[in-house]
Amino acid sequence: MSIEPDVPTLQWLLQTGLGSDGTVTAGFPLVLKVAPESFVFGADGILSAPLTDKQRRDHAAVRLAAALVTQTAHPVAFPTETVYGLGANATSSESVARVFAAKGRPSDNPLIVHVSTVQMALDHLLPPETPIPPQYLPVISQHWPGPLSILLPKGPKVPHVVTAGHDSVAVRMPSHPVARALISLSNCPIAAPSANTSTRPSPTLASHVQDDLKQRILLILDGGPCEGGLESTVLDALRSPPCVLRPGGVTVEMIQTIPGFENTAVFKKGSAVVSEKELIAPVTPGMKYKHYAPRIPVILFEPAASNTSKSSSRLKDLEAAVRNRVIQLYNDTVKQQTIQTQEVLVVGILRTQSDTDIDLSGLREQLLVLESKSSVPLRIQFVQQRLGSTSAEIGTNLFRALRELEAMEGCCMVFIEGVEEVDEGLAVMNRVRKAAVETIHF
Ligand code: TXA
Ligand code: MG
After folding, report:
1. How many angstroms is it from 232 CA to the middle of ligand 2?
2. Which atom belonging to ligand 1 lies closest to the Cα atom of 195?
């Protein structure tokens, strides 16, 4: 039987986790495992009292996180159904400023605010006496709690630092039990960007948060892997027609089935929904930043529009494109002549389209010939991995696979096969395009 360690007090966390200069001590963040099943909500959305020892211990862990958020300005990392978030009391500009600082996030990129009830949004986020704009009601009833953020008019209790000066605030009600419990035990809305350092792939495991935010935060609630894997959809229905500013788990196709949302557009640079002014001051500042980039270059392979081959010959076309790019990598590396002793480079190949592996035997032979002729001792190896059989599954695994490959010794490049931009595939390709430094059409 595994025994969960006791949950420390807030006083212990602050005394041990902070040095005399106020910076976070080596060995922190503290990671507390919490089981999502320990949190049960009634039909009214109220968190039920814990009944078992395990539940009591897990509730105590979330209460510690809530105390950190409400009694200090230190942020806490917590799981949501999309990715891990780094949360702070959304009504405190000091707390929110620390989130920006911990992530190294540019101050003009606004945060999403998380609520556990609609009433919480009415009480804290909207202007006084202002209802939820009626067009959102069917969206909320279908997709909250869930991976959908909506833009609402910003009230005076929301500090400017949260919205980066915008007059709207992005709000979402997460469905993950640990996230809901944290918000309801904090009894305040929680501003939370993804818990990665700025520009890195979003974290889908507590260990990803630890890798990025070591000695930058005090506490991580580890609720296991995030099911969604990609960040929430951001929907702006304050404009007409409504517009998806960032595609996510609630797909554009799902939104378009809702009455009044049939003409929902997708925000894209160069598309008709984007005015000249908005291109200068982007409506969703996240779009202008480098994003989702692991430390090694990602190269996207997608069929050219002119390639109408059937899947079997497409695989051959992909094989040829991969072969050419690897030979180029080999020649470029040899030319740099920095390699003294035998070096093994690894190329990760993330597959999305078929069960059949790319046949690398011809390429391996070609490399052997090059190696035998070269004075530079260089070898290239491959790790081929399938991300999933549906776009949703590919989305769940994408960021984790990128982080795993970059952590692999010798891995110098990741190839990724594109997916069709429909349903969850739109969100997948949105992230892949931002991560990629090069696109090869085959
Ligand atoms: O799934 C998610 O949304 C995760 C989890 C933690 O909830 N959060 C997340 O937050 O991905 P972040 O900060 O990494 O991304 C927020 C996105 C950015 O692209 C930002 O520009 C956009 O939402 N955004 C936030 N507030 C906005 C606003 N008022 N107007 C336009 N875009 C906004
Ligand atoms: Mg983010």
Report:
1. 10
2. 6
Taking residue 148's Cβ as centre, other Cβ atoms within 10 Å add up to: 26
**Does the structure show a pLDDT above 60 at 279?**
no
Phi-psi region of 22 (alpha: psi -120 to 50; beta: other; left: phi over 0): left
Residues with C-beta less than 6 Å from any ligand 1 atom: 80, 82-83, 85, 109-112, 147, 149, 151, 163, 166, 168-170, 172, 192-194, 231-232, 234, 245-246, 283-286
Per the listing, tokens 């969703």 go with: 284
The encoded tokens of residue 139 equal 């969206």
Please state, in angstroms and rounded to a whole number, the distance separating the CA atoms of residues 230 and 419: 15
pLDDT tens for 133-181 read 999 999 999 999 999 999 999 999 999 999 999 999 999 999 999 999 9
Distance 200 CA to ligand 1 centre (A): 15
Residue 349 has pLDDT above 50, yes or no: yes
Beta bridge partners of 233: 148
Q: What is the DSSP string of 2-56?
A: PPPPPPPPHHHHHHHHB-TTSPBPTT-SEEEE--GGG--B-TTSPBPPP-SHHHH
